Amino acid sequence: MKKITGIVLYLCIAALTAASAQAGVTYDVGVLWQPRGDDDVQVYLHASNVAYPVPRDRVEGIFRNIPHPERDYPVLAFIAHHARVDIRSVWSYRLEGHAWFK
């Protein structure tokens, strides 16, 4: 469990660092499966999707509506994967104004 927490923390820090450099950039859902190797955020999103796989048909409907996919998608995928729930349910919960943590 400590190892998973460490990996997630590392990925979050990497995403926030990369995201600050990429502010305002939008991504197509395709980056989750075929990232551009020279774009750290795309590679990060792809790595998140490999670590916590979500079927494409479940992601397509919500990915374009995520304002900051580099921040939110890895958390969505992690929660959906470990809770064994549909990622759309997790996103709906987030849209209701709930924070990822208190």
Distance between the termini: 20 Å
Counting helices, strands and paired strands, the structural category is: mainly alpha
Number of strands: 0
Question: Sheet with the most strands?
Answer: none
Mean pLDDT, as a whole number?
A: 81
Tally of separate helices: 5
Using only C-alpha atoms, the radius of gyration works out to 13 Å
Structure explained in plain terms:
This protein has 102 residues and is mostly helical. It is built from five helices and no strands. The two termini are 20 Å apart. The mean pLDDT is 81.
Write the layout of secondary structure elements.
Blueprint: H1 2-21, H2 40-51, H3 56-63, H4 69-83, H5 87-95
Keywords:
single chain; 102 residues; mainly alpha; 63% helix; 0% strand
Brief characterization of the structure:
This protein has 102 residues and is mainly alpha-helical. The protein is built from five helices and no strands.
